[in-house]
Each structure stands twice: as C-alpha cells, then as structure tokens.
Amino acid sequence: MALAKRIIPCLDVDNGRVVKGVNFVDIRDAGDPVEIAARYNREGADEITFLDITASSDNRETIYHVIEDVASQVFIPLTVGGGVRKVEDVRNMLNAGADKVAINTAAVFNPELVKEASEFFGSQCIVVAIDAKQVSAEGEPLKWNIFTHGGRKDAGIDAVEWAQKMADYGAGELLVTSMDRDGTKRGFNLPLTKAITDAVNIPVIASGGVGNLQHLADGVLKGGADAVLAASIFHFAEYTVGEAKAYMAEQGIEMRI
Amino acid sequence: MSLIAIIDYGMGNLRSVSQALHHVAPDATIEVTSDRQSILNAERVVFPGQGAARDCMRALQQHELIDVVLEAARSKPFLGICMGMQVLMEHSEENDGVDCLGIYAGGVHQFANVIQQNENATPSTERLKIPQMGWNQIVYKTDHPLWQGIPSGSRFYFVHSYYVQPDDDSLITGETEYGIAYASAIARDNVFAIQAHPEKSADDGLQLLKNFTTWNGML
Fold first, then answer.
1. Which of A141, A190, B88, B95, CA to CA, is 20 to 30 A from B191?
2. Smallest Cα–Cα separation from A32: which of A47, A13, A54?
3. Interface predicted TM-score of the whole assembly (ipTM), two decimals
4. Which overall architecture, per CATH, does domain A6-250 show?
5. Nearest 5°: phi and psi at A30?
6. B155 in contact with chain A, both atoms CB, cutoff 8 A
7. Are B104 and B111 in contact (CB under 8 A)?
8. What pLDDT, in 10s, does the model give residues B12-62?
9. Is A12 one of the annotated active-site residues of the chain?
10. Chain A residues whose beta carbon lies within 8 Å of the beta carbon of residue B23
11. Contact B141, B173 (CB under 8 A)
C-alpha cells in the first residue's frame, strides 16, 4: 500500500478548443475540452493538464471558461498552464476551478512570482514548469539549461540548480520537460529527470518525448518521477490511459487501477 | 428540500466542493456561506479548508465562525475535508505551533519529521516527497455510512504535508500509509472528517459525498 504514481494526459487549448489532433472513436467533437476530459477521466487519468497556447491576449479569458466547464463535470485534479504572468492570473485560474497552476517563463523572468503565489495560495497549487535542454557537449559531464521561447532561447540558468531554487521558493511540484525530446517519441530524457528528482524533495512530473508505454514506465523506474505526462500517445488513441496504467502496474509500479 | 452549507471562511476555493455536491445531489440546495444563521439553519454542514493551519484559525476568528463550527459539529451531519479535518484537533505543529478547535484530543504532525526518524532507524530506498500529492489508499478501521458503496482500500486524492494523530484510536475510521500509517479519516457521532479531497477523487469521492448528502448523522 503506497501512494500511486500518476498518469497525466496533457491537452493543448487554443481559444477554448483542444488542438493537436484528438482522435477517439467515441468522441463527437474532437475539440471539446469537456468531452475529452470526461473521456480521460473514464479511462482512469489521475489528473489532467491544460496548456493554454492562445496567442492573442484578447482571448485569454476563454481558458477560464474552459476550466469552469471542465471542473463542473470532471472530478479529478486539473492543472492549467500557459501565459501565467502575475498573481492575478493564478487567482483567476484557481477561481475558475483549476486545482494547480503551472508557472513557466514568468518564473524565469520573475522568480518572486513563485514565492508570492505559493505564499498567497499555498504551495499545493503552484507547479513550476521547467523547460530544459542539454548544453554539455558529448564527453563532458551532463548539463542542462533552462530554455524559454519554446526552446529557442537559452536563459543561461542551470536546470538542476533552478529546480532546487524553485522548490525553495515554494513550488509544490515541478513539471520537467526535456526540450531535446519533446515531440520526438524517443522517451523522456531520463538523466535530466533523475538529476532533478534526486535534487529536490517535492513531486516531479516527467514530460517530453513519450512514444510508447515503456517510456512512461521508465520515467518512474529510471527517472524517479512521481508522475508522467503525455499528450500525443493518448490523443491519437495509440494507447488508452487504462492500458498505460496496466502496463506500468505489471512492471511493479504502484498505480491507481 | 435539504440544505447543505459549505462554510466559507476565505480559505481556498470552495467551488469544486460545491460543484461536486451539486453533481451528486441535484435536488439539494447548496450554499457556500459565511453567514452564521445560514450555517446554523442548514441540515448538513461541510467544513473544507486549505492552506496553513494558522491562517485557517485566524480566518475562522475573523469571520466569527468558531462557535458556529463547534455548534454544527455538535448537532448535525458534519463533513470536514483536508484542513477542515486537521483543525478539529487540539493543536497543529504547523507554523511553529497553532492551537486549533480542540473538538478531539490529539495533534497534527508534519510528515517530514517522521521520515527523518525512519531514515535514522531503517534506511529506506524510497524517499517520501513532501507534500504527499496524489492517489493513496484508505483502509477502513471501522464501518461507517459514508463508506457505503466504496470498497476498503479505494484510492482518494491527497495533497498535504501534515497528518492527524488523535489520542483516542477509536476515532480512526480510515487509515493510510505514507511512511507511517496515519489517520486519513476520523469519525464520531455526527462528525466525519477526511484528509483526502473527495471532490477530486473521481467516482469513489463522489460516492462518499453522495452518502453524506443522505446521511442522518447516526452510525
């Protein structure tokens, strides 16, 4: 008997609609966040993460409506990220029904935001998203830096030190995405995941690169992650969340089945 | 028409509790309120809470709700959730020590201390993260109307760094393991309190809330 490791499907939301191909046979409207969230809930998802990729700031409020709609019908934890810049953004997302808010780029430019938000709302609802990329050359000791602007700009900050700093600043959880692996389907960057899980005492979600179920299991078994996040393998119905959980449980990982 | 009051004392977002109750009891009137009379008039009372113990106790004082909470816990079906369970005890270790409502004898302790003690005694390979965040099992120590339809050992969603330790073991109706076995649900007479978040615990959590909406407060 122990705390289960979590599987977290991630949905990209643009102007209130889920984007990046969701392909389920029993879904009427592939863009409807409520329908997709409900489907993941039925499959046994432990949590759902929404990433707001709405470009225009005029349409930012649509994400609040998405969260309101989903939270009124799906009763598992919901995390929302994307475009969080100030304490007020955190408050709006929580008021709309998010359980946790992920702060990404804003934390890099204004780390005090993490401190402020976690003191105000409690660490339990503040997730810091860390986008990291390997900067060491082959043969050198591994080193990863924080990257911003979708992985294009090196912020010049060591990812492991940053993770420790964010934990000290009150983050309740870290969402660690390998920008080298994101979208590649080659699996998580396990040395990065392991380096961060070893360095902090708060839960860590591994993200970026999942292509099959073994990748999910490795995130926990080899990366030491407390939760694993994936998007495309679930969206395109390559695997259900239930299949993923069964597979991980077979490998001796504690899961909520 | 049954009236359920969710006590609003400014600690955290009560929307998800209210929505989950609406979902399981569409005919009930659910009020998120800090109004003393509404709480006293309600047939059932939900006492949620999140954040730090000191802030919770301070907020209860500021809203002049302490006697109302005590009265509700004496007289009607009462459901404490998360911090709403912890502050029922006498004292919490959080924030260098906070006196709580003292409805039950016992304290609230931090997980971290326990882990250090464990590490000194028997080195463990797996570290426990603080907070405990995620789905853990509740194993029943006693039967209770609120467990009806939910098998013992079901998983609920937890987020917390502190746990309740009542002096009287017979208060414990559900137990969970996180480094140690601790009281994840306590019950006495018309009071039931749970450390997990039933409003975020999918079907089993909804079942527990549904059971509460029809519970008459008797065992």
1. B95
2. A13
3. 0.94
4. Alpha-Beta Barrel (3.20)
5. -65, -10
6. yes
7. no
8. 778 899 999 999 999 999 999 999 999 999 999 999 988 889 989 999 999
9. yes
10. 72-73, 75
11. yes
What is the DSSP secondary structure assignment for residue A186, as one 8-state letter?
S
Q: What is the pLDDT of residues A15-40, one digit of tens each?
A: 999 987 676 667 777 789 999 999 99
**Cβ–Cβ below 8 Å for B50 and A122:** yes
Query: To 10 degrees, what angle do helices A190-199 and A159-168 make?
Result: 30
Token readout for A177 is 């995405």
Q: Count Cβ atoms within 10 A of the Cβ of residue B147 and give its class: 0-12 exposed, 13-18 middle, 19 or more buried.
A: buried
Q: For tokens 């996040």, name the residue.
A: A229
Binary contact (B200, A75; C-beta < 8 A): yes
For domain B3-214, is the CATH number 3.40.50.880? yes
Task: Say whether residue A124 is in contact with chain B using an 8 A CB cutoff.
Answer: yes
Looking at beta carbons, which residues of chain B come within 8 Å of A121? Answer: 51
Instruction: Spell out the long-range contacts of A137-144 with Cβ–Cβ below 8 A and sequence spacing 24 or more.
Output: A142/A191, A142/A192, A142/A195, A144/A178, A144/A189, A144/A192, A144/A195
Q: Using CA atoms, how far apart are residues B150 and B171, in angstroms rounded to an integer?
A: 20
Q: Is B199 a catalytic residue?
A: yes
CA nearest neighbour of B77 among B175, B9, B4 = B4
CA distance B178 to B7: 29
Q: Which long-range contacts (CB under 8 A, 24 or more apart) does B114-117 make?
A: B114/B179, B114/B180, B115/B179
Which token pair is B114? 């326990």
Q: Whose CA is closest to B16, among B46, B39, B54?
A: B46
Contact A103, A123 (CB under 8 A): no
For residue B22, the chain A residues in CB contact (below 8 A) are 72
Side chain identity at residue A153, one-letter code:
K
